[in-house]
Amino acid sequence: MNQYIHELEELDKKHFLHPTSPIQQQQQHGPSFIFTKGEGVMLEDIKGYKVIDGMSSLWNVNIGHGREEMGKVALEQMSKLAFSSCFATFSNEPAIKLAAKLADVAPGHLSATFFTSGGSESNDTAYKLARHYWILKGLPKKKKIITRTKSYHGVAMGATSATGLKPFRDFTNSLAPDFHYVENTSSEALRQMIELEGPDTIAAFVAEPVQGAGGVHIAPDNYFKEVRDICDEYNLLMITDEVITGFGRTGTYFGIEHYDVVPDMMCFAKGVTSGYAQLGGVMISERMHQDFAKHSTGTLLHGYTYSGHPMACSVALKNLEIIESENLIDRAKQMGAEMLAGFKALQKSQSIVGEVRALGLMGAIELVKDQDTNERFQEPVAPLVVAEAAKRGLVIRSVVFDGQDTLVMAPPLVINKEEINQMITILAETISAVEITYKKGIEG
Ligand code: PMP
């Protein structure tokens, strides 16, 4: 077995270019985990080591790991019809049923879905559909997309260009034009930018209801209402990116529901299948849908091979059935409150825990050198906490963009109170250990 694991590690180093990973670390040490099994909130690696998946992997495994019923549905659909095209008006049963189901659960008048294979494709699709919409409406100058400074929208060319977090954009030195970055949660700054750029040049404003990769930033209560009014006033489309916040994550079906606002377009992915298949999409309002139908006389020239993939759509339908029948949205709300209470206890017991926040099961802990002044450490310590937590059986993530020193977590919605307590205990031990190491470092 050891020899087999060693061989796998060597093959990984030699042949696997990992997504969003430190390549030198991988080349030196190989993969940090080779996961082989999952059950509920737990993941197990090839060496039999078990960890709590405090991130739902990539904020997506909402119903938890190891659900046999998902495999059964996938097998049934694959055996009957694994794939057929949705181009040229071809269709299939799971895609039709899922589109109808989404119209049923989505906020307000969002009624039609364009399917993709993930979040990045969904964002690129949204920007293209928004611009195409204005072309059809006879306003082709409306093409700029306004996005926020701490946003993350994915890694396709449009999605990267829309991502406010600069390191992602600096990765490549040529981006898509016509993206503008506005101060993170200021509706006033949005208004000023629109005035400055000219509303007749702007297609849409895009925002995550709660920013995920940027550090779990929760907007002030009135923010999205004001944004909605501004979009209406200046005739822009409002796009929400619900790729993380959709399907129960924040304790409501969709994150924007906390703000009682309905966007014109809504991107989704991740939690729609809980990671059991690759699927995303963009929902558009009934009004936009009718306008497309009225003005688009030719072919809608945008489509992915896997748009409306029958197996992925059947898996999504089963996933939504599970989320609803097991009341996982309510559970996210309740367990989210438990998690936040745990964070607050950490704030009391650990001298380096600063601000804590959570909405449903999406949470963040800021690390500070001084709780009173919120002074940061010179070098971020969150990555040390993440590495140490993994050794103690908990996988979470650090965010160090923009001078942040933040831990973020988003466990599966099936998590129970005991497992939340376990997470908090591991966090307390880990943060203490890192604090002691740090103090030793400055003393000697
Ligand atoms: N939008 C948001 C808000 C995301 O968090 C992500 C992924 N973390 C994406 C888009 C991109 O999704 P994908 O990785 O599936 O392309």
UniProtKB/TrEMBL annotation:
Keywords carried by this UniProt record: Aminotransferase, Pyridoxal phosphate, Transferase
Signal peptide: none
Domain of life: Bacteria
Pfam short name (any one): Aminotran_3
PROSITE patterns: AA_TRANSFER_CLASS_3
UniProt GO MF annotations: transaminase activity
Keyword Transferase: yes
UniProt xrefs under InterPro entries: Aminotrans_3, Aminotrans_3_PPA_site, PyrdxlP-dep_Trfase, PyrdxlP-dep_Trfase_major, PyrdxlP-dep_Trfase_small
Family: Belongs to the class-III pyridoxal-phosphate-dependent aminotransferase family.
Protein name, entry field: Aspartate aminotransferase family protein
Species this protein is from: Halalkalibacter alkalisediminis
